[in-house]
Amino acid sequence: MRKPGKDHEPQSFTFLGLCHYWGKSRNGFWVVKQKIDKERLARAIKAITAWLKPNRHISLREQQERLTEKLRGYYAYYGVTGNFRSLRIFRNETVKRWFKWLRRRSRNRSLAWDQFNEYLRRFPLPEPRIVHSYI
Predict the structure, then answer these.
(1) Which of 28, 51, 63, 83 is the most exposed place for a label (fewest CB within 10 A)?
(2) How far is 52 from 117, CA to CA, in rounded Å?
(3) DSSP secondary structure string, 49-68?
(4) Helix (H, G, I), strand (E, B) or coil at 35
């Protein structure tokens, strides 16, 4: 991977699910940055959805425990410097999909965001965090 110059565009490549690309540091130097590959992010979101759909009728405590395990594992693998935005997107999409499938537990009554936010206070999901800092 060549450092970008005036005559050519910066190159990037994907390795182990992370896209490595050239970017400027806060000090103005060229550094290799990493973020999750878009396809991997989409695949992870689909996997969460595929798990939530058949398991929407188990207790909220069990659902929260399993989602917490999945999120922590995701953060442990993809939690590298410069990838916080993607981690936050993954958590937000997980919350949206959990809300969607909890709403479909019953035909009679719909779940409102206020009630779901109360569930999130009682059964919180972990916030994204950087596990591997390369600074």
Answers:
(1) 28
(2) 18
(3) HHHHTTTTTS-HHHHHHHHH
(4) strand
Residue 8's pLDDT is 58
Residues 6+ apart with CB under 8 A from 122: 60
Query: What pLDDT digit, counting tens, does each position of 56-100 carry?
Result: 999 999 999 999 999 999 999 999 888 899 999 999 999 999 999
* CA dist list (Å): 82 to 38, 41, 73: 15, 15, 18
The predicted model scores a pTM of: 0.84
Spatial contact of 125 and 67, defined as CB atoms under 8 Å apart: yes
Angle of helix 60-78 relative to helix 38-52, nearest 10 degrees? 170
Q: What is the pLDDT of residue 14?
A: 81
Torsion sign over Cα 93, 16, 83, 20: negative
Distance in angstroms (rounded) separating the CA atoms of residues 54 and 49 = 9
Is 95 in contact with 125 (CB distance < 8 Å)?
yes
Of 114, 125, 109, give the one whose Cα is nearest residue 64: 125
